[in-house]
């Protein structure tokens, strides 16, 4: 299955690079190659962060977006624009700004979700409720500050807060890959304990896992990956749930050595293949984010109804 997904992902990448290409191949491959690398990184970040979050929460319907991670990033962006100003913000080096935003998000999320996962085991209903409340709080604060912004500043800010797979900020790709690689290195070292962690807090502790430190490290990885994907394309709510659910269904089990690469490859197929079809077949007549969010929302409703039926 992984080999098949890898072949499909490779074909999607080749189609994105070559279909409809005209003029100098050097220019076309360089231009499309930057966008392709960004889409692959976004697919990887969203997929891996969702699978890890579901491992920590031990629930297949929860994602970082549902729990308010994306709303937190939007709040950070809005707060920076509100207190510093769009014009002053434009003078700051985008790489330094991005690093600062990632640092704020990692620290903020560590404080916010520490009590959810490091104390006594919480019910799924409480996790969902808290995630919804935090998401509403963050979005309400963001909306309040946006209404107080200058109209021109608000328009500039809004351009960065909508998911757009067609216009990726390629200037941040290099730094984003560096952060994602560092997060992946930490994840690689935590790999052997992920399956044990999925058994639950008590079982993991009994089997010798340093639960608190491991969960905090995973939350840090999730925060970095979510910040990377959101900075490149904007907030995406249900895409991670879609690819994570499909990966577990195709693999047939929940072992991370297979689920993680399957989810990442499915994310690449969905984003790169979908963007190829959107640009070459529909000629930008629709937005890929709308289709992805619709399918992901349908999967979320199906999972909720199936859990209710059980």
Automatic annotation (TrEMBL):
Q: GO MF annotations for this entry?
A: transmembrane transporter activity
Compartment(s) where it occurs, according to its Swiss-Prot or TrEMBL record: Cell membrane
Annotated membrane-spanning segments are: 36-57, 69-92, 98-117, 124-141, 161-190, 211-230, 236-252, 259-278, 284-305
- Membrane topology summary: Multi-pass membrane protein
Keywords for the protein's UniProt record, in alphabetical order: Cell membrane, Membrane, Transmembrane, Transmembrane helix, Transport
State any GO CC term: plasma membrane
Instruction: Name the principal localization, coarsely classed.
Output: membrane
Q: Name the GO terms of the biological process aspect.
A: siderophore-iron import into cell
Q: Which InterPro entries match?
A: ABC_BtuC-like, ABC_transptr_permease_BtuC
Instruction: Say which domain of life the source belongs to.
Output: Bacteria
Q: Which family does it belong to?
A: Belongs to the binding-protein-dependent transport system permease family. FecCD subfamily.
Q: Which named protein is this?
A: Iron complex transport system permease protein
Organism source for this protein?
Answer: Aureimonas phyllosphaerae
Q: Species lineage, top-down?
A: Bacteria, Pseudomonadati, Pseudomonadota, Alphaproteobacteria, Hyphomicrobiales
């Amino acid at each position: 299955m992984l080999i098949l997904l890898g072949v499909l992902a490779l074909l999607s990448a080749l189609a994105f690079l070559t279909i409809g290409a005209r003029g100098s191949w050097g220019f076309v491959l360089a231009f499309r190659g930057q966008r392709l690398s960004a889409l692959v990184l976004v697919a990887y970040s969203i997929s891996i962060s969702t699978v890890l979050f579901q491992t920590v929460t031990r629930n297949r319907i929860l994602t970082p977006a549902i729990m308010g991670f994306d709303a937190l990033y939007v709040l950070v962006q809005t707060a920076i624009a509100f207190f510093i100003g769009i014009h002053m913000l434009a003078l700051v080096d985008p790489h330094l700004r991005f690093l600062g935003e990632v640092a704020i998000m990692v620290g903020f999320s560590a404080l916010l979700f520490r009590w959810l996962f490091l104390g006594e085991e919480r019910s799924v209903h409480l996790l969902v409720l808290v995630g919804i409340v935090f998401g509403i709080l963050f979005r309400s604060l963001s909306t309040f500050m946006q209404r107080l912004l200058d109209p021109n500043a608000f328009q500039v800010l809004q351009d960065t807060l909508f998911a757009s797979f067609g216009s990726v900020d390629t200037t941040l790709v290099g730094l984003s890959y560096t952060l994602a690689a560092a997060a992946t290195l930490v994840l690689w070292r935590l790999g052997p304990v992920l399956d044990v962690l999925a058994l639950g807090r008590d079982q993991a502790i009994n089997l010798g896992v340093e639960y608190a430190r491991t969960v905090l490290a995973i939350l840090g990885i999730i925060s970095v990956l979510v910040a990377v994907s959101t900075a490149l394309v904007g907030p995406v709510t249900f895409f991670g749930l879609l690819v994570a659910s499909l990966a577990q269904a195709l693999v047939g089990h929940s072992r991370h050595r297979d689920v993680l690469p399957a989810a990442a490859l499915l994310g690449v197929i969905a984003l790169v293949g979908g963007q190829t079809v959107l640009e070459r077949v529909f000629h930008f007549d629709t937005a890929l984010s709308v289709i992805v969010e619709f399918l992901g929302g349908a999967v979320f409703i199906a999972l909720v109804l199936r859990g209710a039926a059980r």
